[in-house]
């Protein structure tokens, strides 16, 4: 079986999930397709199968046993119509960050930059830091931007775990200091 995107497979994650390369690629493909189309469930039709074939080079005959294995392993449930895949919310898919938390961050940040790239960086960042810490650092950064003349970074650049821009020192509002004459800062 030829797998188009095998070089992008995170083998550490794949091994932790106890999946074959084919199962992992199909899991990623289904997740990406659902995310792009903003679908909660996936109705598996001939058109969807053709789309998957173009993405990962699995024929329809090759896709079905792989999907069956993912159902058996608990990543998806099959609806009564036997064609709709329902993701199991109890299964953890490491490459799929919690999008509701990301959406909270995205709203706070002001939707600057490419959402998809920022989501990918957010997912990578969640391996090292927790959501609350990122929200705190983002808030400090946004305050910093209000009191300086810097332009706001794109979301993906701010969240990049290799550069850790979110961990930079940011200026924040300080309490007013008395001037040298001993009077108020404002007088």
What would you say this structure looks like, in words?
Helix content is 49%, strand content 5%. It is mostly helical and 187 residues long. The chain folds into two domains: 82 residues, Winged helix-like DNA-binding domain superfamily/Winged helix DNA-binding domain (Arc Repressor Mutant, subunit A), CATH 1.10.10; 69 residues. Strands 1-3-2 form a three-stranded antiparallel beta sheet. Helix 2 crosses helix 4. It starts with 10 loop residues before the first helix and ends in a 28-residue tail after the last helix.
What's the helix and strand layout?
Layout: H1 11-16, H2 21-37, E1 42-43, H3 46-56, H4 60-72, E2 76-78, E3 84-87, H5 99-109, H6 115-125, H7 131-147, H8 155-159
Antiparallel strand pairs: 1-3, 2-3
Give descriptors for this structure:
Arc Repressor Mutant, subunit A, elongated, 3-stranded antiparallel sheet, mainly alpha, disordered C terminus, 187 residues, 8 helices
């Amino acid at each position: 079986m030829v797998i188009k995107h095998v070089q992008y497979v995170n083998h550490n994650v794949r091994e932790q999930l106890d999946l074959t390369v084919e199962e992992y690629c199909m899991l990623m493909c289904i997740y990406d397709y659902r995310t792009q189309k903003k679908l909660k469930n996936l109705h598996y039709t001939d058109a969807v199968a053709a789309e998957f074939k173009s993405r990962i080079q699995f024929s329809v005959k090759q896709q079905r046993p792989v999907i069956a294995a993912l159902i058996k392993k608990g990543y998806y449930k099959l609806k009564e119509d036997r064609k709709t895949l329902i993701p199991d919310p109890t299964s953890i898919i490491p490459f799929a960050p919690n999008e509701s938390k990301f959406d909270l961050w995205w709203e706070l940040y002001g939707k600057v930059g490419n959402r998809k790239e920022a989501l990918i960086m957010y997912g990578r960042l969640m391996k090292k830091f927790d959501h609350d810490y990122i929200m705190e650092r983002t808030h400090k950064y946004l305050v910093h931007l209000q009191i300086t003349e810097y332009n706001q970074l794109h979301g993906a650049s701010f969240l990049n775990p290799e550069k850790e821009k979110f961990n930079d020192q940011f200026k924040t509002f300080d309490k007013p200091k008395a001037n040298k004459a001993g009077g108020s800062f404002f007088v």
